[in-house]
Amino acid sequence: MIKQQVEAALWAYSYRLALSYLGVMLVLWGLHAWFYEYDDTDPPGGRSGLIIRTDALTGCQYLTTTRGGLTPRVDRHGAPLCAQKDTP
To answer: Kind and range of the H or E element at 63?
Structure first.
């Protein structure tokens, strides 16, 4: 009798824990989708999968993906996109 009650209590706890975990994951996914910033590599209504990285020292931009790899970001003339440095 007690064994059945313990098993039922453990099942109910596991069920509530799984639902809580699912609820937290859904909230986090919703917040990520709501606040995710788009950049100019993205097509209208979607994501390109590219991430823009900027070198802190040179100001040059690079493109990377979540799978790795790094390539310089260039303009339509093939020149690297780098921030203009103000010279005193």
So the answer is: strand 61-65
